[in-house]
Amino acid sequence: MDSSTSLTRTGSWGVVALCSLVIVAEGYDLIVFGALIPSLLAEPGWHLDPSGIGAIGSLVYVGMLVGALVSGRLSDRFGRRRLVLVSMTIFMIFTAGCALAAAPEQLGLFRLLAGLGMGGVMPSVLALAKENAPAKKINLVVTILMAGVPLGGTTASLLGLAIIPSAGWRPMFWIGAALSALILTVSFLKLPESAEYAANRVSGASAKFRDLFSPRFIKLTLLFAAAAFTNLLTWYGLNTWLTQLMKKLNYPLESALQFSLTLNIGAVVGSFLLAWLADRYGSRPIALIASLITAAAIAGTAIGTSNAILLLACIAVMGMGAHSTLNLINASVADSYPSQLRATALGWSNGTGRLGAIASPWLGGVILTAGAPPQAVFWTFVGSALASSVLITFLALTRTKAPKALMNAL
Questions:
Q1: In-domain check, residue 2
Q2: d(CA 100, CA 94)
Q3: pLDDT for position 406
Q4: Which residues have C-beta within 8 Å of that of residue 351, sequence separation ≥ 6?
Q5: Are 53 and 175 within 8 A, CB to CB?
Q6: 133 secondary structure, DSSP code
């Protein structure tokens, strides 16, 4: 496929829409696990406890860490489109494998392998979207793109309400594999290569992984990694454990799933407001505000309230804040490095950030297995949200813009 012809046919916003669909598939396959935890704990013969569930939940993020680091580097070398298609194929196949798992060990292995594809798709899709974004709309474009994660999670929650009580957890993975197959087919037919990548390939411009740690970039590279770690610890911890935490607080399964739905709807709707503010005032200052309101909303949920509307509002706001912080960190990374290094930088921040996503399911499981109340898990994520705020403050004080050419940056 000729990338320039395809780009003309698809159009900039069309590319963004296709990239968003890819993230919807990834978001469903990733977040569906949280909705399945009560059913997996009750699976006959598996004898899982919260600690075991947490360990299985963490494995997908181990795969995502490796996938993001490797894919980002390969995307800058071999092209965005190719890595998107390969990564989607990987997580489609192994999500189907999860539906066939006959034991917890098999489920964990298939989640690990699916994670390679889920982590691999993100750096390439973000770089491709950035390189097709209209001028001064990077925060909006990344928000549209990343809305696919909670939209996928919302789809999983809605389907879970209808399917899990009667059919169990396995059909949920089959649906994810089918959704991925459909979007993979559309992407193969319509998704173009990045014009910036094509131009760099023609000119011979290139970069190496070690360039992330050159004097020009090392401070940013380390701060982005730490901020992504603390933010993903918070966001994926909430997505993994919210359903089970609300169930332990004596809400029925249907209500607990509705809280998960509220979290993801809040993430989708609220993130567009913060993206609009970020395009006006900058991604880093608004990311700081987002991380602070996340901590406040989680604290409100931990304290508890008998007012259902107020509780739902806290959950919606924590979704808005945590997801928006992730969006704005990604937008800032994409805007801070030259195109030859962009996907590598996105792979670095997303990959190292996955250490937080790996820790969060395990951490929640350990806290609950130790006999601590559900509120202790919420307070743990208040702490991680506040840590993210501190790191983003340092980023906000580091004013940078991606240089036009890599040689000007080193």
A1: no
A2: 10
A3: 54
A4: 64, 65, 66, 67, 68, 69, 72, 119
A5: no
A6: P
Residue 100 within a domain:
yes
CA dihedral 77, 82, 86, 87 (to 10 degrees): 70
* Nearest of 202, 208, 211, 206 to residue 339 by alpha carbon: 206
Number of helices (H), then strands (E), in the chain: 15, 0
Do 111 and 98 touch, CB atoms closer than 8 A?
yes
Position 91: which residue type?
Answer: F
Residues 290, 29, 315, 232, Cα dihedral to 10°: -40
Please name the residues in contact with 31: beta carbons below 8 A apart, sequence gap of 6 or more. Answer: 149, 150, 152, 153, 156, 239, 264
336-388 pLDDT tens trace: 998 889 989 999 998 898 888 888 878 888 898 888 888 999 999 999 999 99
Do 176 and 95 form a contact (C-beta atoms < 8 A)?
Answer: yes
Q: Which two tokens stand for residue 199?
A: 């131009």
Domain count within the chain: 1
Range of the domain at 321: 11-193+205-408
Lowest mean pLDDT among 1-5, 96-100, 201-205, 399-403: 1-5
pTM: 0.78
**15-25 pLDDT, tens per residue?**
888 999 999 99
Taking only the tens place, the pLDDT of each residue in 296-328 is 999 998 887 667 788 889 999 999 999 999 999
Query: Quick check: 406 and 340 in contact, CB under 8 A?
Result: yes
Length of the chain: 410
Q: Each residue of 83-120: pLDDT tens digit?
A: 999 999 999 999 999 999 999 999 999 999 999 999 99
Is residue 43 exposed (0-12), middle (13-18) or buried (19+ Cβ within 10 Å)? middle
User: CATH number for the domain including 144?
Assistant: 1.20.1250.20
Q: Would residue 169 count as lying in a domain? A: yes
Whether residue 328 lies inside any domain: the answer is yes
State both tokens at 333. Answer: 């990374």
